[in-house]
Amino acid sequence: MTRKSFLRGMAAVGAAPLLPAAVLPIATAEAAPSTRPDFPLLRNGTPTDVFVDAADDPAVIRAAGDLVADVERVGGVGPRLLHTVPRRAELLVVVGTIGTSPVIDRLVRHRRLDVSRVEGRWEASVTQVVDRPLPGVDRALVIAGSDRRGTVYGVYETSERIGVSPWYWWADVPVVRRDTVTVPAGPFVRHEPAVRYRGIFINDEQNLTTWSHRTQEPDKNIGPRTYERVFELLLRLKANYLWPAMHPYSDFFNKHRENPELADRYGIVVGSSHPEAMLRNGVHEWEPWAEEHRNPDGTLPLYDYTVNPAVISDYWRARARQNAGYESSWTIGMRGLHDSALETKYATTIPEKVAVMNDIITDQRRILAEEVGEAAQPQIFIPYKEVLELYNAGVRVPDDVTLIWPDDNHGNMRQLPDEAERRRAGGNGIYYHLSYWGRPRSYLWLDTTQLSKVWQELRRVHDHQADRMWIFNVGDIKSIETGLSFCLDMAWDVDRWGPGNVEEFLVEWAGRQFGRRHGSEIAAIRTEYYRLAAERRPEFIDKAIFSTVHHGDEAERRMSAYEQLLDRVRKLGAKLPEPYRDAFYELVEYPVHGAYLMNLKYYWADRNALAVRQGRGAGTNRFADLAEAAHSEEQAITRRYNSEIAGGKWDGIVNPYPSQIPKAPGRPAVTRVPRQETSGLGLAAEGNETGASRPLSFSSYTRDRRFVDVFNTGFLPFRWQAEPSHPWIRLSTAGGELTDQTRVRVEIDWPRAPEGTHHPTLTFTGAGTTAEVRLRVVNDGERARQRARGFVEAHGYVSIDAAHFDRQVARGGARWRVVRGLGRRTAAVEAVPTTAPPVTEDLPTRSPELRYRVRFTSTGTFPVTVFRLPSLDERGKRRLAIALDDKPPTVLSGQAIATGNRGDAWARNVEEGIEKLTTTVTVTEPGEHVLRLFMTDPAIAVDQIVIDTGGLPASYLAPPESYHRVFSPDPAVAPGAEAPDL
User: Fold this and answer.
1) What is the CATH number of domain 526-648?
2) Taking every pair of C-alpha atoms in the chain, what is the biggest distance, in angstroms?
3) C-beta separation of 183 from 191 below 8 A
4) CATH architecture of the domain with residue range 681-784
5) What is the pLDDT of residues 386-408, one digit of tens each?
6) Is residue 616 a contact partner of residue 713, using CB atoms and an 8 Å limit?
7) Which of 880, 912, 919, 918 is nearest to 896 (CA)?
8) Out of 3.30.750.200, 3.40.50.300, 3.20.20.520, 3.40.1180.10, which CATH number does the structure's domain 197-500 have?
9) Is residue 47 scored above 90 in pLDDT?
10) Looking at the whole model, is its pTM more than 0.85?
């Protein structure tokens, strides 16, 4: 079977990417219903020629060439690329820009092409079939753009519709071969984007540099050949903007003059990041400039505007003059060299620094006016870190300059434009991280930011009219494929995805890469992968984060969820045809497997440390071996990515442990104990690090499954047995020979257990020792369980998923909405609209409210903890309120400012992905009550609520959700609850 016929067979069974006859909507494109026959780009192996006028923009001509190549990728034979209209053609593809292509303008003038919805717009296009458009041409597919990039996007839209993924090269997504390729007759209108400038920042790019040097340009460290690939990817993703690589190990962009020339030829706008004022890369360029412009006394000038303003001004002017002819974005303002803070030797106070910044901006604006003129647009000012403090203290940014608001580097917007800033002629934009190097921890390895979290923040950004420019920090590009695709999709059509359907993006996106039949399963895999990362990013893992003794071994439950996810990945991967295996490994399998192993090695290391404290013998060394084996396997799968996938194409692109930037957690330290020819019975019951002083707790509502670890304190095997005091206690195993350890699962046979509260025991014997474990069993009976309303207290706590409210009350034009896929569980709630005014008085009558029914068996004053997602507002506050029944609400205030420190509240919040806000509620009588959650500040999101009624042990995660007849009818079989013996 040839590869061509094999891929045809895959298309027949639905394994191919989406094809034109069943294509899903793409971004904001609007397709009008049509009964006209589809237009063939390839028919019976014969391609349709592509015409583009030689007078059109070079970016359009080049993109038309890519369409030719894409048709050849699909059909095996490429059309001709023509620059003159043929004298006779049955079919023709016509590509051109309104106002630039005489052929397009003629069609418009003769009313053969309706461009009323795109003409004069930004980057819009129309694609439609026109009968007898030109003398000698019977039928044409016309792709017409409002400007050069509008045309380019129309071309690439067509490529994607015939099955060429934007990731065909960067992620090795295969193109299915077909003898006949058609597109709908149209018209197909792509409206202008929601965000004008949409792009990426290649940053902390050591792996990309290593790969580029090894496989693309051995004489360079990211040069034109690599940037050609980057530019094409951006355009296929409907982006138009780039901050290039800028670190010491990479060549700076303007080192190779082909780079800005190429960018202009592709239609990419090139800018620079917050420390790179005026397109200057200080890491590489300042030192040689300073060497050539020494002070009169021979010393090197400092990059300090209060010391050497003239030398620095000339430094900026030289680049403005050099790049004046290209479509560029000009960053104004100033920071220190290589992303360090602004240096001002002769300005030490905030007001003095503000004055210096104002002088800097005035100088830069004069340079741009003199060297670039009116083409010096857009100009941007980025109030990043300490510059934000200066901006808020009074820096004057000209009205036509775009303010670029940064997040806290961890996906939480720090500050958004107020009403006055929203009226600025230059508008507002954002700089948002999908990858980051810095405090408190770095995440550079995998794409781990929840898409629903991204959606929540970007929706909030757009609600505040920050829509001029969106830049996403994508690190090395590879591994961020899914997140980047989503961000750029939102940047084009911010309204397409809503709070309840972000996962539908994954379904569609995965369907385009791997075939519609697999879209839903891959989307479910990625959603669970993101959820586990929301609990703790794999790059943030460390020893002793998750409890190994509470809540059924919270760490093991997490590892069980990962293991189940990896099993799904492997089963799906085995079903995919061979041509899809490389793409699947890159986009799905490696991220899941890598995250699993990063967590697994630390799980075993934690079990090893616990075993040492418990005095285990052979089991201690067993856990050490497992931790090191997991680390070795993690290294092995990375080697496979770099040396085997796609024939070694990605040599060096993925490395959790690069040499010059922060690393992912490495090999955890473990302890081994010397072998001793002894044996001894030891045990640790759930809830206890050692022994069994805390009884195993069982409730007929939650129907729990608990564990007892039985272990050998030595190395010689011995026989052991366990005996329950009552026949309705069930054990997963009741004895045998023990060399190192075993985990005994304990549960209750509820139909046989008598009602009431009981205190049975388990007796363990072995190696001449007897030990007892106490149980506490509360059985209210099946009838009470079925009649219970609301969340039922058990085990000394009530745990509630915030999205599981019984009633919502909207007030004052504001409400709470459920955002699926957000937070540590399946959904979170967010107070909207995000622009609503705060409510600080009369909350029960003015504030939107959520109500939760809770059934208490205890009375007293109890701590209640609200798990909120750590959004910020550096000019405001982050507050919500909570109350029980009709008692006055208590306002809780969260962290509103990103300090950039390690070890403080902000650092803890971004590491954990939540902020715990705690107060108390008083329950005076047992029975049913109503817990009430109120909005104080808008755009605040809540994940979980936990009430400690006296039995809540300390743990990283919230305990499993309490019993609720509707929302949580069987907590014991919730995801991760049935953890196997790992």
Assistant:
1) 1.20.58.2150
2) 102
3) no
4) Sandwich (2.60)
5) 999 999 999 999 999 999 999 99
6) yes
7) 880
8) 3.20.20.520
9) yes
10) yes
